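Q: Sequence in, structure out?
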Amino acid sequence: MSRKSTKVYPNVWKSEKMREVSASAKLLGIYFLTSPFYCMVGIYEQPKERIRKHTGLSHKELDQTFAKLIGVGFVRYDDATEVVWVVDMAVSQVSDGRLSESQEKEVLNELARLSIECQFPFVDEFIQHYIERYPFLPRDAEELCFV
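A: Exactly. Output:
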């Protein structure tokens, strides 16, 4: 699901993950949070060539920067599908508190679309990461076809 705007809270700069990384990793992190291709759960297609074009990072800089963001747990990336998962993005884009029934349905529909239609990676990992925060989530991606 695409939105016209994204929320980036000022406390992103205070997060341990952002404090631990270089300036280029901060740039890439903010790029992922504000990319025109993002989706609310933080799992979306993001080819490295597009990232280089938008950020101005060289091949080497991008590879090093990715390694740093992956190392601190900010993102996961699948080279084969060119899909990124911004691990904590759902907290700011969905909710860090209680969701309405329609918001829950939106999240489930988005995860089902990503898993079933797009066959994107990271949906199971998303569920495991967020199951305590969002108890309406199924136990795994296979159950999404029944929601």
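The CA atoms of residues 115 and 123 lie 6 Å apart.
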